[in-house]
User: What shape does this take?
Amino acid sequence: MINRRQFINPLMKGNKIPTHRGQPTGIEPYARSWSRSEAIHLLRRTRFGFTKEDIDNLEEAGLETSLQTLLSELPLPVPPLNNYNTDTYTDPTVAPGETWIYAPFDPDANIRRRNSFNSWWMGQYLKPELNLREKMVLFWHNLLVTEASGVDLAGWIYQYNDLLRTMAFGNFKELIRAITLSPAMLRYLNGTFNSVEAPDENYARELLELFTCGKGPDSHYTEDDVKAAARVLTGFRINADENTYFFSPIKHDTGDKQFSAFFNNTLIQGQSGINGENELDELLDMIFSVDEVAKHICRKLYRFFVYYTINEDTEATIITPLADIIISNNYEILPALQTLLGSAHFFDEAVRGCFIKTPLDVAAGLIHSFYIALPTEDNLPLQYRAWDKLFSFARENGLELASPPNVAGWPAYYQEPMFHEIWINSDTISKRFSHIKLLLESGLVLFGNLKLRIIPTDIVSHLNDPYDPNAVIAELTEILYGVETDEETKHYMKSSFLLSGQTSDSYWTEAWADFANNPGNMIYADAVNSRLRGLFNYMLLQAEYQLS
Assistant: This one.
């Protein structure tokens, strides 16, 4: 395994990254004092970028209220709209600015609608709400994978995404039933072709191996279990006109299905006619009676939100008791999320700053933290174009929304022993840096002279004391860096960039005062922005910025 310190140190110029120091804490409630440090850690793991005001709000609110805010139900977003009509193309059934999600399939419009969906989904990660729902949508999408190319129809792709969002904090068992019958999954894993004449094991295999039981040490289902589950699932078909499923009794295997000792030797008796559909619920009841299902989902939650390595101590002190909470709550996910994110272990120093940021963290994080203004719905094509530019950055760096590389999801969430280190290699690190430098310097062109660009004074203006260079550096490292910064490095950043090599702090203080007291004076604005651009060119290309 590549050691995280060895992997990223060449970029760090000697700064150290703390290594994992063991896991002495469990899922008992966090009981130490609540400070900015804890608020920032909670934001790093639940948001894709945040602002100083977000930190202030969580610090003031405290842990309990912060979790209530992050886990609260929000109204569902406006669905994706027709942003793609041009002088040379017009959607025949959807007017500009109207949603296409209910429109009949049209082969020419479909690829444009898929692109519209991609941009729209990226846009959900750029909204300012302090809430965990969108991160949970990504969690579920990575676990219960469909690929856009395998589903193809834009309406079904959106419908599946909406299902994950609607049930993001809901019941895991109910979610599994819903995705089993969704047109997107029926098409993606061949469920719609599964019949008594030609059983297709594709979905049954992934249902057990990836979605529910997993491949943990105590998951001992058999190949015959996969075959029996596939027989249970015969007969489900897609109603393309109504974008739903239907059950075809003549395609269903009415024979009895015998399962192994792992499933307590359960026998699902075959049913004929429309009653054959009831076998699905018997199958899910059987699967969810196995404790390993709860442990599997807890391992996934742990690796997504806390830490990537799970050892015997983690199994005993975190995974098993968290699984007990899920089981005792009939597979409701919310109690487990509340417990995990509010636990002593979640806030353990050993698991802070231990992830390399995903491409989505970088793309959305820069927008949030630097207060970059995005086009609004008043100019729909431009708004979607901005979303698409950021979607493209994440895609080029290995995280393409709606299109994980395979049914197992993105390797960074499961591929041992590297896990999150997969996000950075010689190709993607240069792309990250190029994207950051583009936003800092020339700007990301949207149309003509319209650009997305970091205005350095925007973030500094929000700080508590922008006149004090020491306070500026302290707050910026707090907001932008995933690990603590030593005083020597802070001094280097202050003297080299804010003071431009001078020795007196007043050199910055006076420059900021000139800028603040003379709004609109470009000479004063350029004087501070040029120093800040140098600072951010340094800060954002350091390894500390790549950590979460």
In short: The beta strands are 236-239, 244-247, 257-258, 267-268, 444-447, 450-452.
